[in-house]
Amino acid sequence: MNAVEVIVKKKAGKKLSEEELKYMIEGFTSEGIPDYQMSAFLMAVCLKGLDEEETVAFTRIMKNSGDIADLSAIKGRKIDKHSTGGVGDKTTLILSPIAASCGVPIAKMSGRGLGFTGGTIDKLEAIPGFRTSIEEADFYRLVNENGISVIGQTAHIAPADKKIYALRDVTGTVDNLSLITSSIMSKKLASGADGIVLDVKCGKGAFMKSEEDAVRLAELMVKIGRADGKAMKALITDMNQPLGLAVGNSLEVREAIDVLKGRGPEDITEISVKLAGHMIHMGGKAESADEGIAMAEEALNSGAALEKFKEFAAGQGGDDRIVDDFSLLPLSGKTYELKADSSGFVEDLDAMMIGEASGLTGAGRQTKEDVIDHGAGILLVKKIGDRVEKGDVLCTIYSSDEDKLERAATVASHAYLIGSREVSPPELIRSVIE
Question: What is the per-residue pLDDT across 43-97, written as a single tens digit (0 to 9) for each?
Fold first, then answer.
């Protein structure tokens, strides 16, 4: 077997065996196959595709390229959540304490962000003292004691994916359904949970722009997870406008706490409660998803989820006083208020543009080495369907750098469409893939 034969075979649209896929992935990971041959292979996959059987095999090989987390030391049925990413998506910070307060152990490995905002780990590190890198024994202990721990994903989880994704990113081979699926699921399956609830976004601020493509992605991920013995479910959710009002690490921590106090924006509250409800059901703590959602709502209303968040933060060295004193969280000192130049209604709010503007403030990173400004970002005031008068503040932009602030404001000004039509916000949850 050699790389050229495998590339030519896939270029001709022929099905590859698991042995051939393993040869390519393991050969590239071990540096036996050079970048230029793997690039040609990935392009052939993008042009000719992988069928379902090939995609399952591709995912399995990448999952097995590194460590498989053993969570057997943690009591109970461990349930994970994965989002395909979006603007203002801080659901992990909310649904994890909700589900944990209902008895579902949350042993989660998350990543850092690359793009317009930080990932879950970056958001948590906005909390003074919070440690996302802890010993394995402490990780297990915290989940058993507090019901929840979230740590950074190690380099030993699916290392093949890390190396292949870096190549896809610079060779125009990111947008392939099978490659997207295998990248996500190889890491999730290696993380050791018993079940996974997927939040698959669609719309302007999501990778999958159409609902149809999001459903195809969700169905494939669910099938691959089940083939690996995991309980699986996916929700298709809207990402045409940002989720909630806060975009940026510290700002999103504040909003997550507001939701846990029962005073957060409706959209981020709704999606967090429903995702948590499905996790509670999958974790065996409710007889149905509807009962799980009702339990999640009660955990929010009773204050149990907020107390669980405080336990979670303190358990990993974080200052839990932030719950009652937001001034302890970082906030960049320079601000710009973007104001409406006409009266009417917000007919559109482009999530991707707001995301790009947030990245320009310093809230995101363009390379893995970039340092995030945890206090930077955007706080929205108006969203789709809201009435505005000329001069009303549409959003407030935060940054530590005047030039960054200016560039972000320019981009954000193009995100809003003010018109005469009274419109409704987009439907938040489109469907559930069982």
Answer: 999 999 999 999 999 999 999 999 999 999 999 999 999 998 889 999 999 999 9
The CATH architecture that domain 3-49 belongs to is: Up-down Bundle (1.20)
Among the listed residues 161, 199, 320, 373, the single catalytic one is 161
Buried-exposed string 251-268: b where 16+ CB fall within 10 A, e elsewhere: bbbbbbbbbbeeebbebb
Residue 238 annotated in active site: no
pLDDT digits (tens, 9 = 90+) for 352-383: 999 999 999 999 877 667 789 999 999 999 99
> Hey, what CATH topology would domain 79-323 get?
Pyrimidine Nucleoside Phosphorylase; Chain A, domain 2 (3.40.1030)
Active site residue 392: no
SS3 107: strand
Task: Name the active-site residue from 82, 108, 204, 404.
Answer: 82
Exactly one of 65, 182, 183, 332 is catalytic; name it: 183
Token pair recorded at residue 240 = 């045409």
| From 168, 201, 308, 374, active-site residue | 168
Domain boundaries, given as residue ranges, for the chain? 3-49, 79-323, 331-419
Does the domain spanning 331-419 belong to CATH 1.10.8.1310? Answer: no
Q: Is 183 a catalytic residue?
A: yes
pTM tops 0.90: yes
Does residue 168 have an active-site annotation?
yes
Residue 161 annotated in active site: yes
157: helix, coil or strand? coil
Give phi and psi for 274, each to the nearest 5.
Answer: -70, -40
